[in-house]
Write a structure and sequence with these properties.
Layout lengths: L11 E2 L5 E6 L4 E4 L6 E2 L34 H12 L6 H4 L17
Antiparallel strand pairs: 1-4, 2-3
Length: 113
């Protein structure tokens, strides 16, 4: 991408709307809430951590039951930041991400791109 002159126009990111529980269901683990994501590319404001790392463990302040860790940033907020970078306007964001209206519009762009 550098040789082609498009390094600042290419972004790689992970995508998932769930993590895994810390507690086994005797057949593995169930879907959880918290999950980490990575975003890479020249347009990314890197070397930063966005959100608050959870207190990992059963029965911690961030465990909402059965080892499900409550995230501080929703996948919708993460996606809206990327959608904004892709060119989606604030007025169209609710069409692209119907649940984004559940969050304060000041948190729709986390600023990592």
């Amino acid at each position: 991408t550098v040789a082609m002159g498009v390094a600042d126009k290419v972004t790689t990111f992970t995508a998932s709307d769930f993590g895994r529980t810390l507690v086994s269901n005797n057949d593995g683990s169930d879907h959880g809430w918290g999950s980490m994501h990575f975003v890479m590319g020249d347009a990314v404001r890197g070397q930063r951590f966005y959100g608050t790392p959870p207190a990992i463990g059963n029965g911690t302040v961030d465990d909402v039951g059965q080892g499900r860790l409550l995230p501080t940033i929703a996948v919708d907020q993460y996606a809206s930041t990327l959608a904004n970078w892709f060119g989606v306007s604030a007025t169209d964001m609710r069409t692209v991400l119907p649940n984004i209206g559940n969050y304060n519009s000041s948190s729709w762009n986390l600023g990592f791109v």
